[in-house]
Design goal:
- By secondary structure, the protein is mainly α.
- It has one domain.
- Helices cover about 70% and strands about 0% of the residues.
- The chain is built from five helices and no strands.
- Helix 2 crosses helix 3, helix 2 runs parallel beside helix 5 and helix 3 packs across helix 4.
- The longest helix is centred in the first third of the chain and has 19 residues.
- It is globular and about 45 Å long.
Length: about 100
Amino acid sequence: MNSKLNEKKLEKFEKRKNERHSTPEEILFIFEKTLEDWRPIKIYNVWIQKNPSTKITKKDVDNISNGNVRIEPNEVSKEDYEKYQTLRNAVYEKHKK
């Protein structure tokens, strides 16, 4: 029973990760630039110039810049996950104002 539950969690994690179209590195970059008051279109243009093979879209950048994205703890190192949580909370606070 427990292995079936873990299997479902893993499937859900993989599905969410694949639908996201963005890597943890891209998410952290977008959060950082959002907090520097960059507009989503500028973030998108700079990112695709640095990484032309990216799968991220302008709509993805808009969603991420609002904090609407989730990174799982097992996707990144502990330090990067803590950085993600800090940045995400700061993005939420910025949009509350």
